[in-house]
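Re: Re: token formats

Sure, here are both.
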Amino acid sequence: MTSPHPDSEAVADTDPSVYRTLLESTRAIPWRIDWASMRFTYIGPQIEELLGWKQSSWLTVNDWADRIHEDDRQKTVDFCVAQSQKGVDHEADYRALTRDGDQVWIRDVVHVVRHADGGVDALAGFMFDITARKQAEDKILQLQRELEVLSYRDSLTGVANRRMFDTLYPVEWAKARATGEPLSLLVIDIDYFKQYNDHYGHVQGDECLRRVAQALDSCASRTRDLCARFGGEEFVLLLPATDEDAARNVAERCRRLLQHKEIPHARSGVGRAVTVSMGVGTIVPGAHDDRNVFLDRVDRRLYQAKSAGRDRICDTET
């Protein structure tokens, strides 16, 4: 490796202003705090451009702490003090307050300078403006959350999808078992839907699915209630803390809402409007009950309703 030119070494050794010029020409903001007095012995002039506070106003660590956003202040100060007392180099991300009341995301990179005996002499470091990076990270997190929501939503009807039901059903089953509260399920199928599609076409069939889903979803009105598209023209309502009578009432309300919508169905075998068949079940899960067995039982009741002529509710087994 070629050695630096001896003249350049001499300049650096004899002229400390070279180092200061280099430090103050970067976008990173250098600083130094004396540990004993907790006073700034230096902070780069770039701080004024970034935060608006004059370079001369940074006197003690209190000036630094007071200019941290109140939501980040205590945890940031506690973390930095604890790490510094241990003599550990560290980094901290926090929102700094600007003089005009705005905020900037800062990454503080801290080096602990020690005495010969190992005690802390000073803290030195750099502040970096990471606002753009944080905004990009926040945008990515927002998109991830939106994608997660979409992954649990049926794209055609807008109600929850089978994945959402499969996620929440075990949770509500466990809650019902722990609390002794009843849990109800409604499994619902649109009557003669194949004939509907054959007669009106798939575009109109999709619209029919959306209108039925909206009606069913409006009946799952409590926060924990769930209406999900189970597949094809089949839907399921998951109703926590709902007894048999209440579940039957929800089922009847679903049928009435669809009757009021009067969605034409010229090829139905039970009338001239879209109808549904339903299986309804309620259980207080015990230690030996199986949620899949219960779901299968309610599903069989749906097919009993269909076998009995459709456009009806079955909540018992024959």
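Second one below.
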Amino acid sequence: MIDRHLGLCYNRPLAMLDNECEDLYQPVPDTLWQAGEFYTGNSGPKRRGLSFQCTSHDVFGFFLPLMTILGDIVDMNAQKNHPRFGQRTSWESFESEITHQLERYAYSLQEFKTQHGCGAPGDDAADPIRGECAHQTRKVVAYATHIMHVLHILLHGKWDPVALLEDDNMWICSQSFLSATSSAISAAHAVEEILELDPDLSFMPYFFGMYLLQGSLILLLLADKLSTETNDGVIRACETIVRAHEAAVVTLNTEYQRNFRKVMISTLAQIKGHSHSREMSPAKRREVLSLYRWTSLGNGLAI
């Protein structure tokens, strides 16, 4: 899980292979582990190998399957960027398989939500435990939904912010751009839900910032290219992202999130005609983003 996450953060190859994990047991839910019930032999059948489904509220139950899928995306991205072989292979079958994995995860997330819905809305107020269960379920589903949409973006889109804005190969006219844009809007809606349920973004601060950033780059591209023609839906999504970055840096103060927040605020100011001498110029915004590169020689967040 950490290996896949850091592979994305620092744009580096994976250190652990899937076949090294195929015979390992999947982690038991935290509730069983902390209660010691995994020793009794009554905690249900143990499962081996990789999973692509949400199974519980803890980080292994909902986040580990997403990182398993991310591993495939990171691996495929590295192969695509190979200087000699990357352009010689058709990637459609690989992308289709990863899309299928994400669809399986989405289906399991809906089942998980139904299973842990904790009854009718009126029951929550009468039963605090049931209400807390419902709240935790909604929070897990919101975070998982956001990261799932970001994985769709990573599968179909460009990872590097500067290459994204320069768009030398007219990717903005492709079908994959439309797919990535749809996922970016859906991810922003999930962020709205997250901010309502977890206003200070304290649920998984050491992980979430990376996905918040990669899920926001398409919105920045739209705002940058469309400028004053940007539609209200994209502007609202960008404003939601700014709010999320503001909450995130209070909980876990990271420079890349502060920098991206400044870039997004400057872009929004330009759209609304509020630019003044203190705002970043487009060239300055690209200079700030160039600190974080996901090119073949880029190091991601490592500067």
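The mean pLDDT is 87. DSSP finds twelve helices and no strands in the chain.
- S.
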